[in-house]
Structures are given as structure tokens and as C-alpha cells.
Amino acid sequence: MEARIIYEVLFYEDAEGRCPAEVFIDSMPVKAKAKAARWIRKLEEYGPDLPRPYADVVRGKIRELRVLFASMQYRFLYFFYGRHIIITHGFIKKTYEVPESEIIRANNMMLDFRARVEKEEMES
Asked: Each residue of 35-45: pLDDT tens digit?
């Protein structure tokens, strides 16, 4: 049975076209990248219903995709925008809680994304 894709995952790009999630993925080992790609497909299929241990709510509208590979805890922070899942960036989690700086970074990217999308919608 083929998985049905309900949501579309997009990687956040800043106004200059930089994509922090792609930069992070490019730095990951090949097998960890493959596992992350499988988890991202699960996220597209299940959206907000993707359970732990795959995903979790971090704070407010910011969520995390949790990829454990070997002893490394890879995290991708994301938010929903309609039927889109916007992955802001990734990092290696080294502490029990998601670092405050990573949450702030994701939240700032979410605010920037929304402002630019709304501006485009108003101009068209």
C-alpha cells in the first residue's frame, strides 16, 4: 500500500535564497541523510499526527522532527503553513531540552516566512 502524501514539506529560504536546512543536511553522514529523508516522508504523510518518537511539539507553533542515528540526535525544527510544512533548520541536539537559541531561530524564520508570503499575496 502506497503512502498518501497529505502535506508538502518545504525548506525555509531567507530573502537572499539561503536554506539552512539544506546546509545542515549536506553536512550529515550519508546514512543519517537517508534516515532523515524517510522521516520527512513520514511527516508529509502524517502531518501533525506524526507521533513520538518521530516528532514532538517544542513550543507554540514550533515542532521538531527527531532523527536518531547511531548516537547522534539530529533535530529539524518546523511549522505548519496551511498544507505546507516549513522546515526551518536542523541541528545536533546535545542537551536534554531543545536549546532556546534554536527555538528563537526557528520562530524568527517562521515570522519572516509568513511576512514575505503575506506580502507576496497582497501584491498579486
From this structure: 999 999 999 99
Separation CA 124–CA 109 (nearest Å): 23
pLDDT value at residue 2: 55
pLDDT in tens, 1-52: 455 778 999 999 999 999 999 999 999 999 999 999 999 999 999 999 999 9
What single-letter DSSP state applies at residue 30? Answer: H
Q: What is the pTM of this model?
A: 0.93
Q: What distance in Å separates the CA atoms of residue 2 and residue 5, rounded to the nearest whole number? A: 9
In the three-class reduction of DSSP (H, G, I as helix; E, B as strand; rest coil), residue 83 is classed as: coil
Rounded to whole angstroms, how far apart are CA atoms 79 and 105? Answer: 12
Left (φ > 0), alpha (ψ -120 to 50) or beta: where does 64 sit? beta
How far is 65 from 58, CA to CA, in rounded Å? 10
CA–CA distance, 3 with 15 (Å, rounded to integer): 33
Domains annotated for the chain, with CATH where assigned, are: 8-123 (3.30.2310.20)
The residue length of the chain stands at 124
